[in-house]
Each structure stands twice: as C-alpha cells, then as structure tokens.
Amino acid sequence: MLVVRRIHVTYHLVVDQAIIGDQKQRAAIERVLGSHADRCPVARTIGNCVAISTNLELHTPEHPLP
C-alpha cells in the first residue's frame, strides 16, 4: 500500500535581476509563498494528513529554469 506522508514543492520563478537584489521585493515574494498553502484548496484538504514543504528558486531571463 502506498502512503503519502509528505510533499515537497519547489517553485521556480523567473524575475528580473533587479528584483533578486531588491530586499523589499524579495521579501514580498517570500510572504506570498509563505501564505500560499493557507489559500490553496489542495493544501488545505490534505494539510492535516500530509506534511507539505516548499522552497523557492529565483531565476533570471538570462539564466532560466534548468
């Protein structure tokens, strides 16, 4: 039997280099990521049964997603 105990999600966001260096804008991105699970219907449904973790990787147009 398969039992899912945890899910890890990596968000890849392509932004301008200026945003990566701007602490205010980066903090805003982190706040949105931090509150996403509270508003995500899937995360709300399984959140009490499955551990959900996330992280964020910022990319520039010059160095897009791997």
Structural overview:
The longest helix has 17 residues, at 23-39. This protein has 66 residues and is an alpha+beta fold. The chain has one domain. It has a two-stranded parallel ribbon with strand order 1-2. It has 3 helices and 2 strands; from the N terminus they run βαααβ. It has helices at 17-21, 23-39, 41-46, and strands at 6-14, 51-59.
Number of helices, where a helix is a run of at least 4 consecutive DSSP H or I residues: 3
Name the assembly state. Answer: single chain
Count of β-strands: 2
Largest sheet: number of strands, sense, barrel closure = 2 strands, parallel
User: What structural category arises from helix and sheet content?
Assistant: alpha+beta
Q: pLDDT below 50 for ≥5 consecutive residues: which ranges? A: none
Annotation keywords:
elongated; 66 residues; 3 helices; 42% helix; alpha+beta; two-stranded parallel sheet
